[in-house]
UniProtKB/TrEMBL annotation:
Domain Cyclic nucleotide-binding, first and last residues per copy: 15-119
InterPro entries (UniProt xref): cNMP-bd_dom, cNMP-bd_dom_sf, RmlC-like_jellyroll
Superkingdom field: Bacteria
Membrane-spanning ranges: none
Protein name per UniProt: Cyclic nucleotide-binding domain-containing protein
One Pfam family matching this protein: cNMP_binding
Species whose genome carries this gene: Candidatus Filomicrobium marinum
């Protein structure tokens, strides 16, 4: 997948929409395309959160870990949704749940440290916008599970 196509996909996500084109291109250079089969686990609850993901094609379920205090919280990720956002949180918290492919899926895996370094050093304006949106995503995800 070409960097231009990855940039377009990123710009269609809630988190990265409206980010400076040069910054989207740089994030696209960091992204690694991953193909998953139905049943593949993207990450497990309690694992270290190093990478975030964009679902390019397919379906991925996210089930909240039992140790988080929520009972049976599960959601399904659809095309161009961001998940694994904990990778953008400093000091890499543990994963809150398990992400698993429900069907053959294509993902973009993006290293959180590299994104944060890029935003801090090259485009703090976009970085502020992205982190503000991330805060809203986090707050909304916990409101929806209540």
């Amino acid at each position: 997948m070409k960097t231009e196509e990855i940039s377009r996909i990123l710009n269609e996500t809630n988190l990265f929409a409206g980010t400076a084109p040069a910054t989207l291109a740089r994030i696209g250079e960091i992204a690694i395309l991953k193909e998953c089969k139905a049943g593949d686990v993207v990450y497990d609850s309690g694992g270290q959160a190093l990478d975030m993901f964009v679902l390019v094609r397919g379906l991925v379920s996210f089930a909240m870990g039992a140790n988080v205090g929520h009972a049976n919280v599960e959601s399904v990720m659809k095309r161009h949704m961001i998940f694994g956002w904990a990778a953008l949180i400093p000091e890499h918290p543990k994963r809150l749940g398990t992400a698993k492919c429900l069907e053959p899926s294509t993902l973009l895996s993006i290293n959180g440290d590299q994104v944060m370094e890029l935003l801090r050093d090259e485009d703090p304006k976009s970085g502020f916008m992205i982190m503000t949106r991330l805060c809203s995503m986090i707050a909304n995800s916990f409101i929806e599970t209540r």
